[in-house]
Amino acid sequence: MAGKVNSSTISVKKLVYAVVTDADPETFGTVTEFSPLINIKVTPKISSATQYADGQAVDSISAVGDIAVELETQDMALETQAEILGHTLDPITGIMVCNIEDIAPFVAIGYQRVKANGKSRYVWIRKVKFQVPAEEGATKGENVVFQTPKITGVGVADSHGDWKTVADEDAGTTPPTVAFLATVPATATAVV
To answer: For the chain, which residues make up each domain, given as ranges?
Structure first.
């Protein structure tokens, strides 16, 4: 493994997803490109407690709860929406029907964070369930304003307790290229 290298991330790209096809152990469908990524925000909810005795703090514990995921992409193809939200897409007509009984599947999402030194960090959030997004639009005025879709989801740990897998080219990770996003990687916990 290479020595520690510090370099800031300067961009995100290459958003992909794979539907979770089985829950225990997790297996995944085909990795599919989402849409060009504009923004991503992954926020684990942390609960913590501190125990006090003899007038001072004597112990502390923290636990990761669910994980809020927010995406903004250039577009969101109907095929992607149907897969990640459980909608029905007619392959002949290309018409998507959204029913109130639709159930979104869990999906793994992967993306690439480009670093200032030209290397990359690759991330998989292992189990996310997306929520039907709000739809908003505005008429074109004197100035053109791009209107891009945003979607939120809730991430949870998999059956091994793992919620994220990260690889960094600076750390000598194998594979050190975008091939890391070609399949959802097994976790160290899953191998044991």
So the answer is: 9-135+144-187
